[in-house]
Amino acid sequence: MSTRDRFGRRQLLGTLALGTLAGCLDSADSSDNDEDDLEPEPVSVDPEAPWRTTTLEDATGESITPASSDNPVLLHTFSTGCAACQSQHREFDAVSGSATIVDLSIDPNEGDERLRDYAEDEGYDWHFAVASEDVTQSLIEEFGQEVTSSATSPVIVDCGDESVYRLEKVIDSEDLEGVLADRCG
Fold first, then answer.
1. N or C: which end of the chain has fewer CB within 10 A?
2. 42-50 mean pLDDT
């Protein structure tokens, strides 16, 4: 293979990688500007659904059961390499005292150590855990297949009184605080 052929292939692969990354970033940017995305979508859910009732062990070894939280719960499926997820995390950081935040990795290759390192490196102090098959399936049943796509997965707001809302990613902290105050009181 000539140098020219290898350069062409590298150039093509680089272009494809940039296009994929741009798509992820574009989906984050477009939701910031779409007024319809700010309106929380009420979702009727099973109060005993595994995503609410399963006791999760977060990456630090602490246990959390979303349905048992005294605060509203923000549940978000993500992967550590997702730019849109990182943008959402920066917004969560600003509201972390107003809600219990549970970030569930949907990548079965991300273990507790990787999640713990990610949270520590970024300075995040909320719950990070790997979603089990039961929890993932439960989320798919109630919120759709989109929960398994980290770049477009919704932010789920569980007010704890059986009021559950679906928000499009990336919702900024000011709008998120408004949803928590208006919907979860």
1. N
2. 91
Q: Are 87 and 170 in contact (CB under 8 A)?
A: yes
CATH of the domain at 119: 3.40.30.10
Whole-structure pTM value: 0.76
* Dist CA 114 CA 107 (whole Å): 11
| 131/155 Cα distance (integer angstroms) | 15
d(CA 103, CA 165): 16
Of 86, 85, 77, residue with least CA distance to 142:
77
Q: Count, in order, helices (H) and strands (E) of the chain.
A: 6, 8
Instruction: Compare 71 and 11 and report the one with higher pLDDT.
Output: 71
Q: How many CB atoms lie within 10 A of CB 97?
A: 7
Tens digit of each residue's pLDDT (9 = 90 or more) over 57-85:
999 889 999 999 999 999 999 988 888 88
Q: Which residues contact 78 (CB under 8 A, 6 or more apart)?
A: 85, 88, 89, 103, 104, 105, 106, 150, 153
CA-wise closest residue to 183 among 145, 155, 142: 155
Range(s) of the domain holding residue 113: 3-184
User: What is the largest distance, in Å, between two alpha-carbon atoms of the chain?
Assistant: 66
